Amino acid sequence: MPRVTPTPTPPRDDGAALELLVHGVGGTTPQEMLGDPRTVRVTGDETAAVYRRTEDAEAELRPGEPDAGPRDRPVPEAYVWCNLTSGNGARALWLLLLPFMVANLTHWMQPTTRGLTRTVRTYGVLVRLLALSLTVLLIAAACEVALDLTAWQCAGSSRCSGDKSWLGFLSPERGGWWSQPGRRLALAAVVPAALTGLLWYLSHRTWSAYESQRPLPAGTEHDLDEPTARPALGMPGFWYGRRLVARLRAAHTAAGFLTVAAVLAVAGARYDRRASVPFLEATGRALELALLAGAVVVVWVVCRRGRCESRLDLKLDRVTVALLPGSALALLVLTVLYAVWSRPGWISAGRLPGDRAFGILVLAQGALIVALAVVALTMFRRAPDARTVMRGLGGPAVAMLACALGGVMTGGVAQRVADWLDGTGTPGEPGGTIAGPPVLLTWQASVIPPLLVLLLVLGAFLAVRTRRARRAMADEIEAEYPDAEPDSVRTRRIARVRAMAALTDRAPALVGLTSGATLLLGAAALVGAWATGKAPGRAAAGTPDFVASAAQAAQALGSWLIGVGFILFVTWGRRAYRDPAARRTIGILWDVGTFWPRAAHPFAPPCYAERAVPDLTWRMAGWTDSTGGRLVISGHSQGSVLAAAAVWQLPPRTRRRVALLTYGSPLERLYGRWFPAFFGTSCLEVLGGEVHCWRNLWRRTDPIGGPVRVKGSGQGPAVDRDALKDPLAYGRTREQPLPAPVLGHSDYQADPEFDRERAALLDRLSPCAVPRQRPDAPLDQGSSGRSSG
């Protein structure tokens, strides 16, 4: 029987419709997002790509076929970006760079400001200097472990090195070539120098993959509705930090090499001045002056200029990027040659000279944080926003936490290594074989137990408040389901989820109290270390017995806790290398922490949004220009933040064809409060005015998402919908014969309201406002077509 070919029907007037789905943290698969095991990759690669169902692969090419589906149901398309953060097992080791990531967040937490250009620049300079101090702290800690504890103290002590065969060739008793202190230090300097080189390599590799992704070029068209002063996220150079990261990488790499060289030079020069050897003394002074000049150059490069967001900055400071690290490495090589010069009378005893440098570094960090707090308060008072956390002090508080993380990790690891090297003895005490790390590091480890006690008290307080809030919600929850028979067990379960979800709004108080306590305890540790710095014992040595006993007990407990934490970090990273589920869990941490570009610290984990946002903008602009259709970008959780950032980057002619649907969105609840200069009230209102079709769905049981508090453009309903019911049914009904789950942050698409709101967005995105595109339209400014009005 011959096949009957159906008569083609003319295309409908409403054009093609597409729903671009963007998932949230943790990632997923295209099959789960599209609800179909048969999917095909439309565009992209193994790292990030756009997928469709196999049957929808060429939906735009057959709009007249009867089986093309109703036009009020858009073709679903999934953008999968989870491999940008959690795809590679080696990225689990980024956990060790957590202080760098937290410091980088500080840059983006600046308060909203109007004017005050110099104040904004000062804020950025202070954050970049603070980030530089963390790099110096990390390399100094590596020098403390490798050069001071191992090569200087343990290798120089026959009791310590006697039972360690791997240190035997460095022992002075054997009289070998490596037995002199300078040569031992030069050999040990390989460890911190290699660490610096590794950080440079990782930063360079990720820089090539992330910061070098070009965003959608800005068009030259003039639009009367386009505001003259664009929010930062809408600027063409916001997601292209190639030049800044390259310059910061060069400066931080040079700072690492200079730190290693300074340890070698100071130790050798101090002995040469005592020994009165004219040639070596002059060489040591020359090296110290060269190191000082190099440090000044590094600081100047870091302070010179920040990000360029108003335009696409394609230039590279090639002289700085190549010359600065190379010069610092050459200076390190010269210092190594100076250190290995024969000094037969040099004997290593006590701690390595320069141990007070840690105190100076911590003092500088404290001064930078105080200055940062003053600048942040000045900015907040100029343009106060009631929704901003801690009255604009969120950035300084998080910076304090970054320094605290670096400090306790440094102190704990140094103390654990010292205990391991000393064997059965105790470093710094009569039975010990080595003097141990600087007193400040032992004091920093002693800060951990009091902080844990504070956190336990805060946790208990929040638990009591949550319990009371849960009891107060009972009547409200039962009133939302008037047709259901009240059930106390069911009510308590729903109330508990809502009360736990509300804890997110108490995070600013928790961070503020923890940061304040950390600042006070850190200052006390610094004062205590300097007051007892000449005492050879552990923390608080030389003080009254009860003070010394308490401090030393806290220090011992703190060093063990840090040692255990460090082991857990390494173990977790190893597990993530083998276990995809654990890798995805770690990826969730980076999904939240690495959304922002590397504006302060080049060794922080890379910003995945510098790949994801250009992907989304190129896809939306290309599809709308080539088809003239309507597009709904649908973002869940962190995906809603990526969706909003991508819509901000669209040219006006494309933005008129795009509707924004967000659900479980942290846009205002988290990003708006913690990053007010970029997602604050005024910024979201601008976005609501530019995106004529925007709808936000949220639940009271959601610990992450919430309302965006935007009125909208005035051409339709408010952006926020009333809170969705969760659970959908209180008890058993004909429609829900089994108990409905409390969904919280997940499965928004399971709610019938989701389809209704998406259809309403498509209806509001009127076809008459979406000009159709000629098939032969030329390309225009990097997009796939040309606007007709």
Describe this structure in words.
This protein has 789 residues and is mainly alpha-helical. It has three domains: 17-81 and 612-769, Rossmann fold; 91-121 and 146-165 and 354-607, no CATH class; 181-215 and 237-345. The chain is built from 26 helices and seven strands. The protein has helices at residues 30-34, 83-86, 98-108, 117-154, 158-161, 181-188, 190-211, 242-275, 278-304, 318-339, 357-382, 394-422, 439-446, 448-472, 474-480, 488-501, 507-531, 545-578, 580-593, 609-627, 638-649, 652-655, 667-674, 676-679, 681-690, 752-764, and strands at 17-22, 39-44, 49-53, 75-80, 630-636, 658-663, 694-697. It has a seven-stranded mixed sheet, sandwiched between helices. Strand 2 (39-44) and strand 3 form a beta hairpin. Helix 6 (181-188) packs antiparallel against helix 10 and helix 20 (609-627) crosses helix 21 (638-649). 49% of the residues are buried. Mean pLDDT is 83; it is low at 1-14, 66-71, 220-228 and 768-789.
Question: Layout of helices and strands, plus pairs?
Answer:
Blueprint lengths: L16 E6 L7 H5 L4 E6 L4 E5 L21 E6 L2 H4 L11 H11 L8 H38 L3 H4 L19 H8 L1 H22 L30 H34 L2 H27 L13 H22 L17 H26 L11 H29 L16 H8 L1 H25 L1 H7 L7 H14 L5 H25 L13 H34 L1 H14 L15 H19 L2 E7 L1 H12 L2 H4 L2 E6 L3 H8 L1 H4 L1 H10 L3 E4 L54 H13 L25
Parallel strand pairs: 1-4, 1-5, 5-6, 6-7
Antiparallel strand pairs: 2-3, 3-4
